[in-house]
Specification:
Blueprint: E1 2-7, H1 28-43, E2 50-53, H2 57-70, E3 77-78, H3 89-98, E4 113-118, H4 122-131, E5 145-150, E6 159-165
Parallel strand pairs: 1-4, 2-3, 2-4
Antiparallel strand pairs: 1-5, 5-6
Length: about 170
């Protein structure tokens, strides 16, 4: 399985009417970051079968913006295991692997491709778990992304990091 881990784009800070972290929406710049990332993926021929997102507003909006460019007509799957503080790496890996394709698998390929939009520090810790990297060594920029190829049994160290990019890559 190919797994694209994506940190949510820039979001509004807490304050004023925004009293819950859960409700923070993307800024205009965050929406633009999301679309630019999706366009960069499309230019490079990255195709996904489905996209899962944390239920937090900023992650779900990032996912919707990505899909609007990357895979129009598809919708993100809400995945509570991607919410802040909910990381159970083995369980998340199985859940992502079990997600059905959101549409036809084009181009036809053997490995499923899943994207997941989440948050730091959990996303960094998850990538460390997947690749067997030392704790605290991976950080994602907002609207940053990583590509991991999962091989063999889905457990700690089953992933090979293919690339990790910042928004400037777009």
């Amino acid at each position: 399985m190919w797994l694209y881990l994506i940190r949510h784009a820039e979001a509004e800070p807490l304050g004023g009417a925004l009293t819950r972290d859960f409700d923070r929406p993307l800024t205009a710049a965050g929406r633009a970051q999301s679309r630019a990332l999706a366009a960069a993926f499309a230019r490079r021929g990255v195709v996904i079968d489905t996209l899962a997102a944390s239920p937090l507003v900023r992650a779900h909006q990032t996912a919707a913006e990505l899909l609007g460019v990357w895979a129009p007509g598809t919708r993100p799957v809400t995945c509570d295991d991607l919410a802040i503080g909910s990381l159970r790496a083995a369980r998340l890996t199985v859940r992502l692997a079990e997600l059905p394709a959101a549409g036809p698998r084009l181009p036809a390929r053997e490995d499923k491709a899943v994207a997941a939009v989440g948050h730091m520090p959990d996303l960094g810790a998850y990538l460390e778990w997947l690749t067997g990297a030392a704790t605290g060594t991976v950080r994602f920029a907002k609207a940053g992304a990583a590509c991991v190829h999962l091989r063999g049994d889905l457990g700690r160290g089953c992933g090979v990091l293919e690339w990790l990019v910042t928004p400037e890559w777009c």
